[in-house]
C-alpha cells in the first residue's frame, strides 16, 4: 500500500490518521456533551449553544486561513510551514483538555475559537507540505490513500466514541482526543529534516487533495 510513497507523505498520512481519528472520538458526541453539561438538559438552549459554537469555529477559521496562506506563500522555504503546522496542532490539542473544565457557553465558544486558530494554521501549512512532497505521477493515488485511511480511522473511532460516552463518560473521550492530538505533534517532527530551504527546491505539483 505504501510502496513507492516517500517518507514525508507517509508521515503526513500517519499524522492525518492519528489526528482525525482522535477527533473522530469527539465528533459524534459533542452536541450531547453540550446538552448534558453546558445546557444542563435544556434542549432549546443546547441547540442554540451548539449552533453558536459551530459559528465561532468556522467564522474564525475562514477569516484567518487566507492571510496565513498568503504569508506562507512568500517563499520562506518550508521552515515556516513546518512551525505553523506544529504550533497549530499543539493549540488544537489543548482544546479537548479545556472541555474537561467547561461549564458555561462562553467556555465552549472560546475553545472553539482556539480550535479555529489552530486549524487555520494547520490547514494551509500541512497542505502546502503535502502538495510539494507528493510523488509526481502518483498525486491521485496518494491523495486517495490518505483520504481512505483517515476515513477508516474516523469511522472506527466515531463508533468507539459513542460507546465510551455511553459507558465511561465524556472525560475519557476528551483526555484521549487531546492526548492523541499531542502525540501527532511528535509525528510531524519526524519530517523536520526533510523540510526544504528558501530556493528553487520548492516545486509545484497540483494534487488531487481530498477535503
Molecular structure report:
- This protein is an all-alpha fold.
- It has helices at residues 7-26, 30-38, 43-72, 79-100, 105-133, 139-167, 170-189.
- It contains seven helices and no strands.
- It has one domain: Growth Hormone, Chain: A (Up-down Bundle), CATH 1.20.1250.
- The chain is globular and about 55 Å long.
- Residues 204-211 have low confidence and may be disordered.
- The longest helix has 30 residues, at 43-72.
In short:
By secondary structure, the protein is mostly helical. The chain has helices at residues 7-26, 30-38, 43-72, 79-100, 105-133, 139-167, 170-189.
Mean pLDDT: 91
How many beta-strand segments? Answer: 0
Largest sheet, in brief, is:
none
Count of DSSP-assigned helices: 7
- Radius of gyration from the alpha-carbon trace, in angstroms: 18 Å
Residues in β-strands, percent: under 5%
Q: Which structural class should the secondary elements be placed in?
A: mainly alpha
Poorly predicted tracts of residues: 204-211
State the order of secondary-structure elements, H for helix, E for strand.
HHHHHHH
CATH class: Mainly Alpha
Number of domains: 1
Indicate the percent of residues in helices: over 70%
Tell me, briefly, the overall form: globular
Just name the CATH architecture. Up-down Bundle
